[in-house]
């Protein structure tokens, strides 16, 4: 392995992997078991999590067509506004174990454990087992990771696939293997089927590191990379093609698209629209916030979900405590590592590893910082593997080269920045465990002094200094991670940390509490749809609490043209929908198709009050 200060370039990516010390295997077992406990214990505390996706999982347990397309109801009117890969996994689990909170959430928790394990394996192969353990531990102890690996948003599976792509790439680097490189492409292509273009954020780093560091002539590298791109297209494109050739009249409408196509959704609403601020989908109708819906910062549009653009975004009130705890230190370590390996051979292990994980981090930071469209703080879970691996590699190499004063200075700076930034983040919830930030500050100060004065170079003192530095660095992020895992989370905008940290952020898409009397009314129905309601944010609660199929008119936002008024009238005439439940919320603002349907129902069917809810019986006029 390369030592960044003492002897850079002595080990290349095609060198044999060094033997691991005996204590590594027990340490890895502790890491994985601890991660499993963190992510799996009391997993059902959040109930259905995000009702929107839970509604689609429920539909997939009742209809294989709904499962394949990711429809919100078993009648296949409209899909979720994402591809269905994560829904496939959760839906299969729910079919095997029965539909419940636990069966739906356990695949994501296991994806978290697998992600930590793959980060360890990938980092170990280029930077050794100690760096791998550091990277895996830092990954598991990031708050947004504990948040998303215990939740039913698609981000958990996305991260696993991105990390798998990195692991396969590392294997490809060792012998310039085309097979491993193709597997890396397949993993990223499957990531597209989970969350579309977000999976491609790692591709610039993947391409760069293979082009620079693969131990094979340039000509071979130049044809291997297009082959890997073909693997990406093939693994992502088969489902896109299936949707395109399937008769539109025989499948659900692709929610969020303007023309009922997956590609328009991918490059419009879920693609360039997120980057450049196109804030609409579903027929092109710009969404308006429902009455009473509050957004962080009081902003009145989708861009308000992420706050102002700029490099400060990821450190601000909304994003800071999710994943930025170790980000400054990782960036410092990246710069130092690349500087110390500047004269190393082209295939140097350490530089290749830093280019891979550091490139992942930098590209994702820049994109998330300057996105002008919809962005949520929990998106930063995609940053966690890059931050953790970069910091693990840089810390291990700097520690190995600590005989050089420059290495100790860099380590001291990284530690100082981490504890000061952690103090600031903890102070944002000043009423919660104030002793933590002061303890971390004191331990950090002791660690900085020990590093600068060379106490770490004393044989018996080195382990003590190492533990001191590690505890000071992770105390803040670890405490936020534990309290995140121990807390319930719901809504379309979950956030990490203690309750007072999360309570002021607002949100949408939480667990809708449908009227118990309405639930009983729907449970007595025998029609294809027990009820219809505008927008998935409310209709999901009806479906989940009653256990009956509910049509979400207009999809997630209420603005999709699905069903059309004519289609809805045919369903009613055929006796397929029993009730229309008023009070649905969506971003359509009562306009478009949803507004037309609502007006038609109000004009043609009698209204009755059930509990506190207005209900229309569509089986009689």
TrEMBL record:
Membrane topology reported for the UniProt record: Multi-pass membrane protein
Compartmental location: Cell membrane
Keywords: Cell membrane, Glycosyltransferase, Membrane, Transferase, Transmembrane, Transmembrane helix
Domain Glycosyltransferase RgtA/B/C/D-like residues, every copy: 81-236
Membrane-crossing residue ranges in chain numbering: 23-41, 105-123, 129-149, 156-174, 180-213, 225-249, 323-340, 352-371, 377-394, 406-426, 438-455, 462-486
Domain Putative mannosyltransferase YkcA/B-like C-terminal: from-to ranges: 524-604
Annotated signal peptide: none
Organism name: Amycolatopsis ultiminotia
Residue segments, region Disordered: 488-512
Superkingdom of the organism of origin: Bacteria
Main localization category: membrane
Keyword Membrane found: yes
Protein name, as recorded: Glycosyltransferase family 39 protein
């Amino acid at each position: 392995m390369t030592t960044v200060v003492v002897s850079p370039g002595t080990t290349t990516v095609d060198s044999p992997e060094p033997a691991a010390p005996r204590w590594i295997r027990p340490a890895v077992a502790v890491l994985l078991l601890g991660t499993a406990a963190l992510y799996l214990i009391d997993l059902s505390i959040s109930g259905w999590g995000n009702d929107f996706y839970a509604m689609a999982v429920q539909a997939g347990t009742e209809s294989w067509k709904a499962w394949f397309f990711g429809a919100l109801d078993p009648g296949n009117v409209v899909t979720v506004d994402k591809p269905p890969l994560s829904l496939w996994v959760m839906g299969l689990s729910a079919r095997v174990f029965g539909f419940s909170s636990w069966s739906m959430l356990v695949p994501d928790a296991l994806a978290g454990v697998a992600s930590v394990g793959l980060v360890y394996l990938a980092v170990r192969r280029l930077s050794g087992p100690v760096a791998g353990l550091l990277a895996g531990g830092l990954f598991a102890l990031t708050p947004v990771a504990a948040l998303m690996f215990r939740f039913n948003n698609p981000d958990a599976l996305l991260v696993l696939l991105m990390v798998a792509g990195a692991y396969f790439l590392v294997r490809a680097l060792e012998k310039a293997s085309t097979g491993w490189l193709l597997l890396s492409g397949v993993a990223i292509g499957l990531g597209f089927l989970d969350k579309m273009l977000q999976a491609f954020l790692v591709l610039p780093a993947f391409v760069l590191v293979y082009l620079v560091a693969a131990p094979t002539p340039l000509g071979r590298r130049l044809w291997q990379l297009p082959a890997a791109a073909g693997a990406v297209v093939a693994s992502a494109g088969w489902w896109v093609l299936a949707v395109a050739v399937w008769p539109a009249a025989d499948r659900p409408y692709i929610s969020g698209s303007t023309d009922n196509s997956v590609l328009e959704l991918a490059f419009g609403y879920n693609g360039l629209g997120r980057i450049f601020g196109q804030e609409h989908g579903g027929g092109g109708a710009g969404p308006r916030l429902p009455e009473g819906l509050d957004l962080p910062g009081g902003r009145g549009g989708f861009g308000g979900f992420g706050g102002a653009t700029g490099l400060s975004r990821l450190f601000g009130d909304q994003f800071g405590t999710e994943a930025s705890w170790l980000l400054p230190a990782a960036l410092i370590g990246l710069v130092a590592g690349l500087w110390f390996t500047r004269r190393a051979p082209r295939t140097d292990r350490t530089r290749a590893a830093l280019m891979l994980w550091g490139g992942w981090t930098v590209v994702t930071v820049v994109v998330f910082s300057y996105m002008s469209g919809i962005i949520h703080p929990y998106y930063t879970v995609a940053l966690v593997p890059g931050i953790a691996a970069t910091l693990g590699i840089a810390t291990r190499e700097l520690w190995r080269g600590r005989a050089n004063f420059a290495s100790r200075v860099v380590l001291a700076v990284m530690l100082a920045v981490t504890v000061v930034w952690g103090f600031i983040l903890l102070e944002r919830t000043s009423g919660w465990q104030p002793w933590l930030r002061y303890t971390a500050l004191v331990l950090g100060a002791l660690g900085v002094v020990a590093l600068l004065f060379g106490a770490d170079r004393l044989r018996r003192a080195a382990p003590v200094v190492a533990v001191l530095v590690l505890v000071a660095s992770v105390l803040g992020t670890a405490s936020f991670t534990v309290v995140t895992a121990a807390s319930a989370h719901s809504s379309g905008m979950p956030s990490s940390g203690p309750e007072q940290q999360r309570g002021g952020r607002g949100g949408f898409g939480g667990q809708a509490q449908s009227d118990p009397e309405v639930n009983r009314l729907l449970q007595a129905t025998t029609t294809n749809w027990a009820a219809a309601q505008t927008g998935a944010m409310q209709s999901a609660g009806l479906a989940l609490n009653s256990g009956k199929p509910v049509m979400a008119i207009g999809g997630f936002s209420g603005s999709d043209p699905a069903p059309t008024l004519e289609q809805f009238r045919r369903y009613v005439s055929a006796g397929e929908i029993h009730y229309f439940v008023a009070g649905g919320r969506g971003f359509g603002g009562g306009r478009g198709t949803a507004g037309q349907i609502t007006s038609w129902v109000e004009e043609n069917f009698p209204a009755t009050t059930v509990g506190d809810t207005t209900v229309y019986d569509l089986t009689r006029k």
